[in-house]
Every structure is written in structure tokens, then in C-alpha cells.
Automatic annotation (TrEMBL):
Pfam families: BTB (PF00651), NPH3 (PF03000). Pathway: Protein modification; protein ubiquitination. Residues 593-609 have a biased composition (Polar residues). Belongs to the NPH3 family. Residues 586-609 are annotated as: Disordered. Residues 211-488 form the NPH3 domain. PANTHER family: OS12G0117600 PROTEIN. Keywords: Ubl conjugation pathway. Residues 29-97 form the BTB domain. This is BTB/POZ domain-containing protein NPY4-like.
């Protein structure tokens, strides 16, 4: 810390109790100055020689024969006045970053100008500020902190503006030119810890991180911090991602529990103001602030009941980069007293905002003439949509364990991303399975509604294997899974799919096996029912047969052994699938559940009556 010593005489100020100060000298004091609750017994001559204001006050006092005067409104109070008084006496005074602003404001109040005496206090303090304090990084921050209690004097004397410019200029400087100490407690890189190996016997110069200054500014109060960040942004030399990191660090420091998504105590009004200010300071560039940080801000803003505009802005910003979020980010806890542990409505709003922005981007994007530019512009949104769909699938799997989660909530959120193309529905199947497991009491129609969210054609082999043995799925879904698994197997082997009864084909999605139209009276409810223990047992038996489809056979000389095994396995699977569908069909027919079926003519179609 920089400091400056003024005067050479020993300090002879003495204290008598808590509110009396006097100079220990043989000369009797001839003036009493009251500053707030402290009385100073001093001498006129040294004071009047340097203070224009005291000259006027003493002149008035003599006319009225009053030797005691009041200066209750002096900035800095008794401590600042004592510094000025000691300077008048020529006593030793030490100025530093903590007291220099108070002394400067008090000197201005006392009118200690050069016109009164050359080398007066104002001149000396200004030299100290400009030559030392404002050139020091940490001293500038300390001085800025002290200005708050000295307003409006510190503002009118431009001390605040000089501090802001000094701090912003240093934060904006090229990191290679940073030669002063700074606080940086985060995990450092190897070269920052001087652990980097020597190069030709000489250690490379240690690099300064781009965000070296963010922790020191966290010491500032909110209003000053806002002005510093605004000044830094105005200079335009600090990247938006560093500004975002600074705001994140400030929130972590000033909002207890922010990292955990909760606010632990504190003044609600101040916390609300802090969140509002951070939202206002957010850089406009997309990606300059992490999606995780934005979600924490939105969660905090909701808890603190911040303004509607701030919450809308955060929702909009998160929607721009929702693909960067993780499932853990979205597991936002509801306030105590709510029936559900997670705030599903907030996540729905975020997904809705993402969908709207994707839609608007497609409408507003200009048509490019170059094919490559068109291709790139389309790939990016598709990739983002696939990532968001996967994110929602994972989120649904987590909240599915909530017994109080309504079917409508689950389905509504899943349907918001149903149009987003993604290569696999395994994540969605896992979420559906978890929900059915935790909500065994839902109706058949609700079970059917949930299972319709899933496209069985996009399940992996592992997911299909699990699904056909899943007692929680309707029989309709099990049949669909088996069919598409067989379709994949026969297609890869170049074989035709076996002919299926019309009523079974009617259970499959449109276009999956020709065109069919089936009318049933009593079978619809049974197909949507959960399979019985006998059905599951039969399915497991058939699955065991499916796994054994790798027998030996005659091989052409042009095919290796593995290729022959694959072909034989696929043929075996085709026979087993036909057998399985026939069993399911025969079981329903024997029970008299099928009254009529009318199937339109298409390749491989059959009429069952």
C-alpha cells in the first residue's frame, strides 16, 4: 500500500475522555471547534494560516465575541478534521488509501487552497493521489470503497471518476503488461504455479489469466461494482466471456448459497437488487455467460420474486443456449410447501422459449445462394434440437420418480420436443419406464398416452430387449417393438418380412408395414392392457429362441463364416417372429375377442375373420 508522510513535528495531540482533543503546549488555546460530538481546543494562528473557511468563522466569532465555533457538516468527521489540524500545526501525518479521500474532502471543506498558502494540503493530496494511489491496482479499489461514505464530496471532487477510470484501465490492459499483485484464488494452471519445465534452462514468463481482476472487484458494494463493470464495458477491451465470469464470481461472493441454488438468509431486498443489477450487466453476446449460471440466476430471481422483466430476460437468454444445459442444471427445487419437489413449469417455459427461437430463426434467416451455406445453417439448429431433446429425455427420467407428477405434466413436456429429430429414443423409453414404475395406478388410457410418445423404431437393440420383457408396457407396444426389431434384422439380411395377420399389422404405426385398416370391437382395450404373466413368460421363451439364432449351415465360398452365421441368425429370427405373432393372434382369436377386421389390399396383407 502506498503512503505519504506530511510534517516533521511530533504529534502532540492529546485526548481527555472520549470527546475532547487538545494540543499539549505551553500556549493557552484560544479557539474551540466542535465537530459532531468531539471538541477540539486549538490555536487560531496555525489554523487561520492555511484554512480560508476558518478565517471566515473566526472573523464572525470575534465580531460576536464568541470563541467557540461549529463545523458539524465537515466530511470525514472528527478524524478527517484532525488530519487537517495536524497539517496546520506541521505535525507528522501519514496519508494512505484508507484516509486520503476523507482528508481531501475535509481540506476542500476547510478551503485549504494554494491561494491561502503555497504547498497547502489540497495540492499535496492531489499529488499523492495522481502519482501513487491511482497508479496502484489495490489502492484504487480501496480508495473507491471509501468514497461511498463521503458523497457527494467525493463525487464532486472527481475522486470517484478517477478511481473508476484507473480500475477500468488496469482491468482492460494487455495481460502481458500486468506487473502488480492481484488476488486469484481459483485453481491455477501449471505455469501459474511455476511448475512448468524449463526451456533451454530458462523458465518461460508466467502468463496472467484473462480474468485476473474479477476477485478483487468482488470486494466492492453493488452500486460501485455496477459502475466499475459499466466503465470496463464502455472501454470495449475486455471480452464478453470475461465480463460474464466477473458477474458469476460476484454472485457467488455476494449471494450465500447461490452455487447450491438456494439463498441462505441475508436482506431479501438487497439480494433482489443484486440479481436485478447482474441481469442488467449481462453481456449481449450469446454464449458469453454459461447456461448454468443463467439458470442459477433465474432460479434465484424466482425465489426472490424479482421483476417480471428480469425473469423474462433470463428465460430468453437461456432459451438461446439451452442445448448447453445439463439435467442437473434443470433440477430446480420448488419452494417449501409445494406438492412437487421440482419446478417443472419453469423448465417448460425454457423449452418453449427455445422452440420459439428456433422457429423464429428458421423464418428470419435469409435464403443463401451457396449450397454449403444453406447446409451449415440447417445443421446447427438440428444439432441443437437433438441436444435439447436428449436433455429433456434425461430430465423426464429424473422427475418421473416424483409420485405427485401428473401425467399431463409429463406428457406436455415430452410433446414439446416430439418434433425434434433425434437418432435414439432410448432416453425417452427410460423416462417412460421410470414413470410407469413409480405410478402403477394410472389408467389404461393414460398408459397408452404416455407410450405414444415413444417411437419404437428408434430403440436400440438393448432397449428393445428390455422393452419386450417389460411387464409395465401395454401389449400393443411390445408387439410393435418385436416387429421393428425383426424388420431391422430381416432388412439387414436382405429378406422379406413375414406376412402378419391384419389385426396385428393394424397395431403398427402407419406406413411401417404396408397400408392397413382394421376395425375391432373388443380387442382395442386388450391390446392396450398390460401383458399377463403368461404373455410375458411366452415372450421370454421366444426371446430365448431369438438369441439362439446362430446355427451352422452350408456356406458359399464367397462368404466367410461370420457372414454365414449372420444370415442364418436372421432367417431363424424371421421364423420365430412369425411364430410369435401367430401365437398372439391365435390367443386373441380363440378367446373370441376379434369380431371383424377389414384390411385394405397391400403387399403381404391378409384378411382375418
Amino acid at each position: 500500500m502506498k503512503f505519504m508522510k506530511l510534517g516533521s513535528k511530533p504529534d502532540s495531540f492529546q485526548t481527555d475522555g472520549d470527546n475532547i482533543r487538545y494540543v499539549a503546549t505551553e500556549l493557552a488555546t484560544d479557539i474551540v471547534i466542535n465537530t459532531r460530538d468531539v471538541k477540539f481546543y486549538l490555536h487560531k494562528f496555525p489554523l487561520l494560516s492555511k484554512s480560508g473557511r476558518l478565517q471566515k468563522l473566526v472573523a464572525t466569532a470575534n465580531e460576536e465575541n464568541i470563541y467557540e465555533t461549529q463545523i458539524q457538516d465537515i466530511p470525514g468527521g472528527p478524524a478527517a478534521f484532525e488530519i487537517c489540524a495536524k497539517f496546520c500545526y506541521g505535525m507528522t501525518v501519514t496519508l494512505n488509501a484508507y484516509n486520503v479521500v476523507a482528508a481531501r474532502c475535509a481540506a476542500e471543506y476547510l478551503e485549504m487552497y494554494e491561494s491561502i498558502e503555497k504547498g497547502n494540503l489540497i495540492y499535496k493530496i492531489d499529488v499523492f493521489l495522481n502519482s501513487s494511489v491511482f497508479r496502484s491496482w489495490k489502492d484504487s479499489i480501496i480508495v473507491l470503497q471509501t468514497t461511498k461514505s463521503l458523497l457527494p464530496w467525493s463525487e464532486e471532487l472527481k475522486v470517484v471518476s478517477h478511481c473508476l477510470d484507473s480500475i477500468a484501465s488496469k482491468a482492460s490492459i494487455d495481460t502481458s503488461k500486468v506487473e502488480w499483485s492481484y488476488t486469484y484464488n481459483r485453481k491455477k494452471l501449471p505455469y501459474e504455479n511455476a511448475n512448468e519445465p524449463l526451456w533451454n534452462g530458462v523458465r518461460k514468463q508466467q502468463l496472467v489469466p484473462k480474468d485476473w481482476w474479477v476477485e478483487d472487484l468482488c470486494e466492492l458494494q453493488l452500486d460501485l461494482y455496477k459502475r466499475v463493470i459499466t466503465t470496463i464495458k464502455a472501454k470495449g477491451k475486455v471480452s464478453d466471456d470475461v465480463i460474464g465470469e466477473a458477474l458469476n464470481a460476484y454472485a457467488l461472493r455476494r449471494l450465500p448459497g447461490f452455487s447450491k441454488g438456494i439463498i441462505q438468509g441475508g436482506d431479501t431486498k438487497k439480494n433482489r437488487s443484486l440479481v436485478d443489477t447482474i441481469v442488467q450487466l449481462l453481456p449481449t453476446e450469446k454464449g458469453s455467460v454459461s447456461c448454468s449460471f443463467l439458470i442459477k440466476l433465474l432460479r434465484t430471481a424466482t425465489m426472490l420474486e424479482c421483476g417480471e422483466m428480469e425473469r423474462w430476460e433470463l428465460t430468453r437468454r437461456i432459451g438461446q443456449q439451452l442445448e448447453e444445459a445439463t439435467v442437473a442444471n434443470l433440477l430446480i427445487r420448488t419452494p417449501s410447501g409445494k406438492t412437487t419437489p421440482y419446478d417443472v413449469d419453469m423448465v417448460q417455459n425454457l423449452v418453449k422459449e427455445f422452440s420459439m427461437q428456433v422457429q423464429n430463426a428458421q423464418i428470419d434467416s435469409p435464403i443463401e445462394n451457396e449450397f454449403q451455406e444453406i447446409r451449415i445453417s440447417r445443421l446447427v439448429p438440428d444439432a441443437s434440437k437433438a441436444m435439447v431433446a436428449k436433455l429433456v429425455d434425461g430430465y423426464l427420467a429424473e422427475i418421473a420418480c416424483d409420485p405427485s407428477l401428473l401425467v399431463s405434466k409429463f406428457v406436455s413436456l415430452a410433446e414439446m420436443v416430439s418434433s425434434f429429430s433425434r437418432p435414439s429414443h432410448d432416453g425417452l423409453y427410460r423416462a417412460i419406464d421410470m414413470y410407469l414404475k413409480e405410478h402403477p395406478g394410472i389408467s389404461k388410457s393414460e398408459r397408452k398416452r404416455i407410450c405414444r410418445l415413444m417411437d419404437c423404431r428408434k430403440l436400440s437393440a438393448e432397449a428393445c430387449l428390455h422393452a419386450v420383457q417389460n411387464e409395465r408396457l401395454p401389449l400393443r407396444v411390445v408387439v410393435q417393438v418385436l416387429f421393428f426389431e425383426q424388420l431391422r434384422a430381416t432388412t439387414s439380411a436382405g429378406n422379406n418380412t413375414p406376412e402378419l395377420p391384419g389385426s396385428v399389422r393394424a397395431l403398427l404405426p402407419a406406413g411401417s408395414h404396408g397400408s392397413s385398416r382394421c376395425t375391432t370391437i373388443s380387442t382395442e382395450e386388450d391390446w392396450d392392457a398390460v401383458p399377463t404373466a403368461e404373455d410375458i413368460k411366452a415372450l421370454k421363451g421366444e426371446l430365448t429362441t431369438l438369441r439362439l439364432g446362430g446355427g451352422a449351415g452350408c456356406c458359399d465360398a464367397n462368404y466367410d463364416k461370420s457372414s454365414a452365421e449372420k444370415v442364418a441368425a436372421n432367417k431363424m429370427k424371421g421364423l420365430v417372429m412369425s411364430k410369435l405373432f401367430s401365437k398372439l393372434w391365435s390367443s386373441k382369436e380363440r378367446n373370441g375377442e376379434i369380431s371383424s377386421c377389414d384390411t385394405s389390399e397391400s403387399p403381404g396383407s391378409t384378411n382375418a375373420r
